[in-house]
Amino acid sequence: MKAGGRSAAALQRMLESSSRVWRDNREATVPAEDLVPRGDRVALESGDRVPADIRILTAQSLAVDESLLTGGESHAVGKSPDTVDASLPPADRLNLLYAGSTIMSGRSTGIVVATGQHTEIGQIAETVTTSEAGKPPLVIRIAPCRRAGSECPPRHGPRAGGAR
What we know:
globular
């Protein structure tokens, strides 16, 4: 399986969960992969993993761990339904919950705005798997050799040909 396929599969496993939603004025529990952007209203509470990118409609003492998205230290970020400037970077959009984040405390309802590869974490995964920076150094080093159909020259430096 290619790196992109593995990353997509890992993202899918991470986001697998069920969500409480309101559809047609009825509450239902649906698999996260069946959520409908701009249609489903989701209820979340402490301990829940956020199944999609969600715009907050209501929040009571809501705090979220977004370290998966930000790559920073794990700490709770306060969230609210207050309108914010859409041009702000994702970490500063306090009225959005991001897929893969965890509700640390409080409760919230919100409307699904993106799912799967269209979420912020999905976009990060796609960027990492399609960029040179996301590839292991050995793969980057041998790519030109494989294209040319020749063997790569030996590596120069302290590790080339010497004891390891």
